[in-house]
Amino acid sequence: MGTEMNGLYRELMLPAVPAEETVYVLGHINPDSDAAGAAIGYAILLQGLGLQARAALPGPVNAETRFACASLGLEEPGVIDSVAHLPVVLVDHSSCSQAVLDLDEARLIGVIDHHGIGDVNTSEPVFIRSARTGAASTLVWLCWVESGIAIPQAAASALLMGILSDTRNLTMNVTQADRQAVRALMDTLGMQDRARQELYAGMRKALTDYEGMSDADIFHLDYKEYEAGEIRFGVGVVRASGTPACRTVAKRMRRYMEEAIHSLDVDMLFLMVNNITADGMEMILTAVGKGADEALTLSFGPEVNGMIELSENLSRKSTFVPKLRAVLEHFPEIR
Ligand SMILES: [Mn+2]
């Protein structure tokens, strides 16, 4: 059964990739731990299917991923800035704005994503897996299960890192598939609950370690751009521990955003500050750009001194951007 599935899966996933070619499994720009984990986990699966494959990212990993990789004994994915003519599988993204610059010159052979289907296109049939899971790493785990190959420790560690990060340790955007994947991966690793909590606590803490970074570095560490009708907007996420630290970093980022909006190709800039300490205030939102304050207030309630403080944590992907987009699309006059 295992061998049979193996052959079948290889055929489905990888039409016409010669054995001597290396497949690049690519995460998105500003890579997070899910992009890195899914890339590592899927590259190892392709290797298990007899191919040469390498995990790669368009930029360096963030502090959380660096901590998790070090704790789990994983090698960080290499950085790549051109994929022209190379066979690539995209993980955790499927739109060109999130991808390596010359993606249109690559040979796309697969997409594993848990966001909407983006704007990449290909004339060849490719292996695509897309579903509403909390992490792309969960979809890669499903691929492992289907392949019938026993998952090795390195792949299990990488996928666990990705799922814990994107679901905030199974507390946000979490589905049954994510829970089942985490259980199975922990079994493979022989990891106890306590070790998982410690791993995640270390990952969260590493995320707020912005020492030695400029305002621009901090803002762009986890920054994405979107469109709503004619309006282009960018959303950065930063993290701090405790309400006072969150307010301080929000003010600091706001000063940076007021300058940066003139050089970035966007009409509005938004900031989400995540409080990683449970002290009652969960998140601060702020915005710069013409009409941005109005859009933010219409979506999320009244501001005080240009800031909205919330007692719940919003996910950028599943709550913040959709709500904001709905307002921006239906209130064109605020522009
Ligand atoms: Mn993800």
Structure, explained:
The protein is α/β, with parallel strands linked by helices and 335 residues long. Helices cover 42% and strands 19% of the residues. It is built from 11 helices and 11 strands. It has helices at residues 2-13, 33-48, 63-72, 136-147, 153-166, 176-189, 193-207, 215-221, 243-260, 292-300, 316-330, and strands at residues 22-26, 52-57, 78-79, 87-91, 107-113, 127-130, 223-228, 231-240, 268-275, 283-288, 307-310. The radius of gyration is 20 Å and the shape is globular. Manganese (II) ion is lined by residues 34, 92, 114, 135-136, 166.
In short:
With 335 residues, this protein is an alpha/beta fold. It is 42% helix and 19% strand. The strands form two sheets. Strands 3-2-1-4-5-6 form a six-stranded parallel sheet. It has a five-stranded mixed sheet with strand order 7-8-9-10-11, sandwiched between helices.
Using the 3D structure, state the CATH architecture of the largest domain: Alpha-Beta Complex
Beta content comes to: 15-25%
User: What is the fold named in CATH at topology level of the largest domain?
Assistant: inorganic pyrophosphatase (n-terminal core)
Class inferred from helices and paired strands? alpha/beta
Note the topology.
Elements: H1 2-13, E1 22-26, H2 33-48, E2 52-57, H3 63-72, E3 78-79, E4 87-91, E5 107-113, E6 127-130, H4 136-147, H5 153-166, H6 176-189, H7 193-207, H8 215-221, E7 223-228, E8 231-240, H9 243-260, E9 268-275, E10 283-288, H10 292-300, E11 307-310, H11 316-330
Parallel strand pairs: 1-2, 1-4, 2-3, 4-5, 5-6, 8-9
Antiparallel strand pairs: 7-8, 9-10, 10-11
